[in-house]
Amino acid sequence: MTVSAARGPGRPTDDVDRRADILAAARREFADRGFDQASVRGIARAAGVDPALVHHYFGSKQDVFVAAVQFPADALRIVQGLFDGDLAEVGSRLVRHFLGVYEHAVQREPVLALLRSAMGQESVATMMREFVTAALIGPAASHLGVPQAEARLRAELAIAQLIGVAMLRYVLKAEPLASASVDELVRRLGPVVQAHFDGTASHISHLAAP
């Protein structure tokens, strides 16, 4: 008698791969409801699968979002991990990693497409704002050791600095920013981003000098 191997929780009960169905449903749910209001259960319902199958293929809601919009998943996890080291150097580490992602066309195009869409579509802007808050700003703020409102403001200012640079360098291709080396930008921007995290941004005019 043949004994079938036991299936783990969430494993598909047939040989059909449901990833494409789940991702299509996730894109609709995130677009219709935004990141905060969308849920793994709702995505599963829209895809006609069990919620455990969504977790089996992708993990958390953040992981589903990253896969659905083709956001560079490893880049996001590494950014969150940057705050586990010395916080006095997190500004330079974050700038170098952020620019490193954007320097590769395959990785940056999905992100730039989202930024362009967010500039013209309120639903996309809401979705991205909620995701960036949950996945980047919230975790960054939690490491700063100051009251929540102040920590969130510092983290938002730091992330805004990087997004602004990305728009000018990679979308508008403004010179000489577009042609500057990553090392030069890390040297100039690292102290600025660090000052936002430290809450000393009003005293940094001398730090970015050549």
Describe this structure in words.
The protein is mainly alpha-helical and 210 residues long. The protein has two domains: 19-68, Homeodomain-like (Arc Repressor Mutant, subunit A, Orthogonal Bundle); 73-200, Tetracycline Repressor, domain 2 (Orthogonal Bundle). The chain has ten helices and no strands. It has helices at residues 19-37, 40-47, 51-58, 61-68, 73-81, 90-102, 105-120, 122-142, 148-171, 182-198. The radius of gyration is 20 Å and the shape is globular. It starts with 18 loop residues before the first helix and ends in a 12-residue tail after the last helix. Mean pLDDT is 82; it is low at 1-9 and 205-210.
List the helices and strands and how they pair.
Elements lengths: L18 H19 L2 H8 L3 H8 L2 H8 L4 H9 L8 H13 L2 H16 L1 H21 L5 H24 L10 H17 L12
Helix pairs in contact: 1-2, 1-4, 1-8, 2-3, 6-9, 6-10, 7-8, 8-9, 9-10
Keywords:
2 domains, mainly alpha, Tetracycline Repressor, domain 2, disordered C terminus, Arc Repressor Mutant, subunit A, 210 residues
Number of domains: 2
What is the 3D shape? globular
Mean pLDDT value: 82
Looking at CATH, the homologous superfamily of the largest domain is Tetracycline Repressor, domain 2
Please, how many helices?
10
